[in-house]
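User: I'm curious whether this sequence folds into something compact or stays loose and floppy. Could you predict its structure so I can see for myself?
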Amino acid sequence: MKFRWRKDFLEEVEAAADFYQQRSPAVMHRFLAQFDKTLLRIAGNPMLGQACGGAQRSRVFAFPFDIIYLQHLDVIVLIALSHHSRRPGYWHDRLRS
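Assistant: Here's the prediction. I'll summarize afterward.
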């Protein structure tokens, strides 16, 4: 399964990694490792993600983030890295663009 991502998704990943890097490089590495595991889990079975407002979401274990994505045939489009308690549903507009 191939991934495609929105530019704003990548910016959110970079912002989260920068946040954890400033607090502790070790925590940043754990975040990125869990992020990678979540992507592998999504690629292995995209339908395991929970339905969420017209998309699917998969939790980044041990961190307060979900990866929001859409599956289109053989491509998974990464929509948002959504924080559990910040701006709920802000990414819905991204589904239309």
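Summary: The CA atoms of residues 1 and 44 lie 8 Å apart. The first helix runs from residue 7 to 23.
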